[in-house]
Every structure is written in C-alpha cells, then in structure tokens.
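re: ur question from yesterday

yeah so i grabbed the chain u mentioned. its 271 aa long if i counted rite. heres the sequnce exactly as i have it in my notes:
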Amino acid sequence: MSVLIYIVCHVVPIMQDDSGNAKHSRDAARSLYNRGTAYARLCNFKLAIECFDKILELEPDNSNAWYRRGVMFVRLCDYDEAIKSYDRALRIKPNHAAALNSRGVALLMMEQYEAAEAHFAGVLDDVSERLMTPASRAGAGKQWASMWCNRGYALEQLGLLEDALGCYGRALELDPGYALAWSNMGVIHEKLKEHSKAMKCFNEALRINPDYPGALYNRACLLAVTGDLEGALESLKRAVALSDDYRDRARDDRHFHSLQQDDRFNILTAR
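ran it thru and got these structure tokens back, copy pasting raw so excuse formatting
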C-alpha cells in the first residue's frame, strides 16, 4: 500500500511593504519558487533544493519553502534531512497541515512505524482540535483524511488491525471519496478473514477510481484466496497494465499460490 504526500503550490509572502528592497526580495523569491517547482516536475530535485535554499536566504521564515525543501529530500530518499526541513516549517507555522502530514510520511518511509503512529496521534489528537477551526478543518479535509489514513497504515504495520480499521474509518468520514482509504480498509478486512466486507471496500475504491492499480491488485488477491481464479487473473492483468510494479509483487505473493501452476499467471508475472 502507498502513502500520500501533498504538495502545496504557493509561496508565503514576506510580511513587508511593497517598497524598495522588500518588493525586490519578494519578486526574487517568487521567481525562485517557480523555478524550483519546474525543476521538481522535471525530477531534478537537487536543483529544486538549491532554489528553495535561495528563497530561505531571502525569507528565512517562509514555512512553505521549508516544506517544499523537505518534499524534495523525500524524493531523494534523504528522510532525515526532510524531517529537519518539516520541523523548521512547523516551528514557523505549527498548523501547517501538509508539513505535519509529510513529516509522518517520512517516518513511514523509514519504517519507523511506532514513531510515525505517535506523530500522527499527537497531531490528530491535539493540533487538529486545538489549532484548527471547524472551517479550517473542512477546508483541509483531504489533508486530515490523509493523516488518519497514514496513521492507520502505521498501526497496520504494527499489527494493530482493529485500531487501523478505525483510523481508515475516520479518514472516510472526512473524505468519503478517498479511494486509498477504502482499499486499505479492504486489506484489513481481508487480513481479518472478513472477505465480504473486504470485497465491498475494494469495489467502492474502484467505483471511485476504476483505474486504481492498488485496489485492482488487492481485489485480485482476495478473488484468488476465495477461489475465483478467473476473476483474480483479470483483475491482476488490469493492475499490471496500469503499474508494472505489481508484476514482481504478484510473483511471490502468497495470495496467488493457487495460480502458481497456471501458465497465464506465469506469463503475466514474467520479468
């Protein structure tokens, strides 16, 4: 299963008047931000970081530049440096929802599941209630839903399946159209041998996004273990067509044990 990183595409302006050096500094920061964003889209993350570093020389308290710097380090798999950048963003703007979420995501990527769960628990139990107004929570619903989903993923990795299920439910309360949360909830139900509930979740994820490869793959797993081998092959075929990553994953997945001798499965999963 995957986790989400949200990217906010705007610059926090410096709090000065429009005269002289202040206006020049703001214009330079905006230009650097646009250049950094362009480099990021081209996957040139090191040059993007250079741009955000130059912004921070001009505007040390630009929380969004610190946040975007962290995102770039995640792309480079330098999670420690990413967390340092997120922490700087949060020191300036404690309710920066994207930085709060992405800090936890970095911990997940490092497989520090206990630390990630503790982070999300603190954010969701404290910051979301203490700092965010109801209107703000509604406006950032998808971001808060993502945090509940990511907390659920951490709990799932810790083997706390019922708690994870509750978190995915909270995510869906905030964003009923969140296909990832539906798919992740289905995985928990499958692990709990609640196959009918799992299938409903996967089907709902695919109703929302028919081309969601993760849900197609998870549904294929469920179909295979419940004996619908033709359905499993069809769903897996669609998942592999959308994302080749699932080809290798399926080859050693215990869910497909009953298909190991099927030539169609071996062709589909061949390197």
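noticed a couple things. The longest helix spans residues 20-41. also The CA atoms of residues 3 and 234 lie 26 Å apart.
anyway ttyl
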